[in-house]
Design goal:
CATH superfamily: 2-enoyl-CoA Hydratase, Chain A, domain 1
Shape: globular
Number of domains: 1
CATH architecture: Alpha-Beta Complex
Number of helices: 11
Helix content: 40-55%
Strand content: 15-25%
Structural class: alpha/beta
CATH topology: 2-enoyl-CoA Hydratase, Chain A, domain 1
Number of strands: 10
């Protein structure tokens, strides 16, 4: 299949998917998410693929969602479009998915990485949830998975005060599996994926499911609450001001309404 916003390759028994919007720092728009979901499902259905690596480039895994697609939307628009529903397709992938992260991994990009089963980071990786600067909160699982991964205190600071996390910090807090030099992070991720892909396929799938069930107990309820709050915030003036200020490259003036 021909894609416009991603690239795909096969390395032995590993499917590699690369987000390919370098001029936009791999920001996640509708096309990226649709193509990404399709590529993941195609690899998942291929009996010769035992694991998947998802990556961006050295500058950015993904620097967030494409704000231009959402800036003018109302809460009703967001609920009707339900853009985040497509993320549920990623969660349903049965083979292990490893995120290979370098550079910026922010907002929706950070949520995408956390939605994978493991993360291999380069030394330059920076993780964060800057949605508060736009007058909204994470909407694709960020408040839920981040809290489970790093704990309440740090998650509060990252979501409420735009605090970023370095690769070394992410390793210490258990957000990532390993950190590698920038020239080796993708190779390391593919190597890890190939090692996993050589193991018993059914055991791998049941193991992944069991761990996710343990990690995500009651997560579905939390994600549903988060999604409702995210969409509701598009009824506020602060959301409009935050996203307009982002596009105009100026500080936002918050009104609390």
């Amino acid at each position: 299949m021909t894609y416009s916003a991603i690239k795909t390759e096969v390395h032995d028994r590993v499917g590699l998917i690369q987000i390919n919007r370098p001029k936009a720092l791999n920001a996640l728009n509708t096309t990226v998410m649709q193509e990404l979901s399709t590529a993941l499902e195609d690899f998942d259905a291929d009996p010769d693929i035992g694991a998947i690596v998802l990556t961006g480039d050295e500058r950015a895994f993904a620097a967030g969602a494409d704000i231009k697609e959402m800036a003018g939307a109302s809460a009703v628009d967001m609920i009707k479009a339900d853009r985040i529903a497509i993320w549920d397709r990623i969660r349903n992938i049965k083979v292990p998915v490893i995120a290979a992260v370098s550079g910026w991994c922010l907002g929706g990009g950070h949520e995408l990485a956390m939605g994978c089963d493991m993360i291999v980071a380069s030394e330059t990786a920076i993780f964060g949830q800057p949605e508060i600067n736009l007058g909204v909160i994470p909407g694709a699982g960020g408040t839920q998975r981040l809290t489970r991964a790093v704990g309440k205190a740090l998650a509060m600071e990252m979501v409420l005060n735009n605090r970023n996390m370095s690769a070394d910090e992410a390793l210490r807090y258990g957000l990532v599996n390993r950190v590698a030099p920038v020239e080796l992070y993708l190779e390391n991720a593919i190597q890890l994926a190939n090692e996993i892909a050589e193991r018993a396929p059914l055991a791998i799938r049941f193991g992944k499911e069991a761990i996710n069930n343990a990690f995500e107990s009651f997560l579905a309820d939390g994600i549903a609450d988060e999604r409702r709050s995210f969409y509701f915030l598009f009824s506020t003036e602060d959301q409009k001001e935050g996203m307009q200020a982002f596009e105009e490259k100026r500080p936002a003036e918050w009104k609390g309404i």
